[in-house]
Amino acid sequence: MESFFLVNFPLHPNFFGLTSDYRNQMMYESYVLVKHGNFTYHDVINMPVFERRRFIEILMEENDKIKEAREREMRKNKSKN
Asked: How does pLDDT run across 25-80, given as a tens digit for each residue?
């Protein structure tokens, strides 16, 4: 009966932790949201992954709109000269 509990389960080395690639990605996402999204680090760490990535997408969309508006303004000013 004791042998039933001695089953050998092969586990991947990162089974109980995050890979270094994932940790680096999470740190970068945290940096972006804290610096540009005005979130606290605590908020970002406790945020679900899908939510964190959606906020980054929203920030990128806003940044693209600002960039396009600046480019339109520059073209408009250039055509006046």
From this structure: 999 999 999 999 999 999 999 999 999 999 999 999 999 999 999 999 999 988 87
Pick the closest to residue 60 from 34, 41, 40, 37 (CA basis): 37
- HEC profile of the chain: CHHHHCCCCCCCCCCCCCCHHHHHHHHHHHHHHHHHCCCCHHHHHHCCHHHHHHHHHHHHHHHHHHHHHHHHHHHHHHHHC
pTM: 0.70
Cβ-proximal residues to 42 (8 Å cutoff; 6+ apart), any chain: none
